[in-house]
Design brief:
50% helix; globular; 12 helices; mainly alpha; 3 domains; single chain; 238 residues; 5 strands; three-stranded antiparallel sheet
């Protein structure tokens, strides 16, 4: 084998996919030779040609949340149903909570998502944070802000890419150019909008901008998507 699977076998308590370091197409091919339901499924789909009119999506064979690379050799084109199946098998084989979360979002489980939103709103109300903070209520009152709703949150969620969903499900750290850092626990936020609100509330330096918060969330989304390195002085720690 090109790389050492003994690392994975020796440490079953940690992320099995992160333990398998894959940095080239050759190593990925070797990984796909280790037969399980997921690798067999991917190997079969690499040979499949979909109809031109069929809607397809991009899938990272080694997920970005497992430190997979955003290279063409790590990306496969799948139909929507096959994409869901890929994540089902990822979770079945490797038991990673990130894949279960991504699957829930992809299948748009309304009950599960609704419950997460309700819990998020209850938690924010108890802590007087986010939308329910005194400052935010004052700001919303001045500008005629609207209250959060499940329908709006689902609409925001539907616009988020698979990469954004898996990113939010993974531990990560934001760093400011002034040296401040904010650690974010995977699954702490379901929406980029809520992540941005948290960063605003905990920034040591007041963030001064007249841009709408929806636009600001879009700027942070571009940093997550690696389309820009930073926004408002904030970037993701490598």
């Amino acid at each position: 084998m090109i790389f050492n699977f003994l690392i994975y076998l020796a440490d079953t308590n940690s992320d099995p996919l992160k333990n398998i370091k894959i940095s080239s197409q050759e190593e990925l091919e070797a990984f796909l030779e280790t037969k399980n339901e997921y690798t067999q499924f991917i190997s079969e789909k690499l040979k499949e040609n979909y109809e031109p009119k069929e809607k397809t999506q991009k899938h990272h064979i080694i997920p970005l949340s497992a430190e997979g690379l955003d290279n063409s050799w790590n990306i496969i084109t799948l139909s929507y149903s096959d994409h869901i199946r890929a994540h089902e098998l990822l979770y079945k084989v490797y038991k990673r909570p990130e894949d279960q979360l991504a699957l829930n979002f992809m299948t748009k489980d309304p009950e599960a998502f609704s419950n997460r939103i309700k819990l998020s709103h209850i938690s924010s109300k108890i802590k007087q944070s986010g939308f329910f903070s005194t400052e935010q209520q004052t700001e919303s009152g001045k500008k005629g802000g609207s209250t959060p709703s499940e329908k709006k949150d689902i609409k925001f969620q539907e616009k988020q890419t698979e990469h954004t969903i898996t990113f939010l499900a993974t531990d990560h750290t934001w760093v400011h150019e002034n040296g401040q850092s904010l650690f974010i626990k995977g699954g702490q936020f379901q929406l980029v909008r809520d992540l941005v609100q948290y960063i605003f509330e905990n920034s040591e330096e007041p963030i001064s901008t007249k841009a709408k918060k929806q636009y600001i969330a879009g700027m942070f989304s571009k940093v997550i998507a690696k389309e820009r390195k930073s926004t408002l002085g904030w970037s993701i720690k490598k």
